[in-house]
Amino acid sequence: MLTWLTLLATLAAAYAVLCLVYYLLQERLIFVRRPLSRNHRFRFAFDFEERWIRGCDGAQLHGLFFPAHEAVGVVLYFHGNSGTLRRWGKRAPRFLRSGHAVLMPEPRGYGKSAGRLSEQALLADAMLWYDHLRERWPEERIVVYGRSLGSALAVPVAAQRRPRCLVLESPFARLIDPARHYFRWLPYGWLLKYRFANDLAIRNVRCPVHIFHGERDAVVPVASAMKLYASIPGEVERRIHLFPTGHHSDLARFARYHRTLRSLLAGEGRTSGNDPRRRPEAERG
To answer: Quick check: 219 and 179 in contact, CB under 8 A?
Structure first.
């Protein structure tokens, strides 16, 4: 009997240690940050400008602006949880080709951006970047784009401002969804310091919403994207574009992704009357 009690106590202690380790290291798991020297020189085959703003707490925040020839609009692009603008900047041409300039902010702690991480600070910074664009661009010409973790910044911005359109690539309803997928054996609901409840924030979005998601996504389950889609108010124009063989980071290999993106940037992707409770089979393929 004592042996079994000892074993159970050992297992319980080990589990508690695992929970503690996850709690302490969760920022490193969620935010895979890569700092860059302020002297780092970016190299792209197209024009760009470095932009700096003060964060909500005075921290220096960095971003890249990619101008478009005779731009008809601008895309505020919030990137995913890993890498820097040295990598993400290569995605700018997909928007430039449609006559849209691109502003890509670097979250605090990434690249050249300084500042301490917190959910509140990240969200406040995102609003500041949007307002930075509003100084020169009318809102009806601003498109907000969120990729994966970047959706957690894009959705609240679109909810509190009035951009022309919100585009989400591989988004989640709540951060707890991918956490549940990866750490099923942990009480993640109690351990997560970051909530990023997109499904709540999106209820206040009033602009058209487009969601791109791969059905084979092993990072953010497609069910999470469907939950987010179902949370969009019924009167809001919206569409979800599902890719049956798509994964988390490869949607750009599909010609349909680029056709749809060009169409919605041109203002041709407007839709209405979709039932958010119905799986939109017409948008699969």
So the answer is: no
Q: Are 275 and 232 in contact (CB under 8 A)?
A: no
- Strand order, beta sheet including 142-147: 49-54, 60-66, 100-105, 73-78, 142-147, 165-169, 209-214, 238-243
Q: In the predicted model, what is the mean pLDDT of the chain?
A: 89
Quick check: is 72 in a domain? yes
Do the bridges between strand 60-66 and strand 49-54 make them parallel or antiparallel, or are there none, so unpaired? antiparallel
Does 23 fall in a domain? no
- Take residue 13 and report the two structure tokens written for it: 């202690």
- Cβ contact 192:175 at 8 Å: yes
Q: Are 248 and 218 in contact (CB under 8 A)?
A: yes
What is the span of the domain harbouring residue 76?
31-36+44-283
**For the chain, how far is it from start to end, CA to CA, in angstroms?**
59
- More confidently predicted of 271 and 18: 18
As a whole number, mean pLDDT of residues 212-237 equals 96
pLDDT at 263 over 80: yes
Number of domains making up the chain? 1
Q: Is residue 9 part of a domain?
A: no
Query: Other C-beta atoms within 10 Å of 125: how many?
Result: 24
Residue 237 maps to which CATH number? 3.40.50.1820
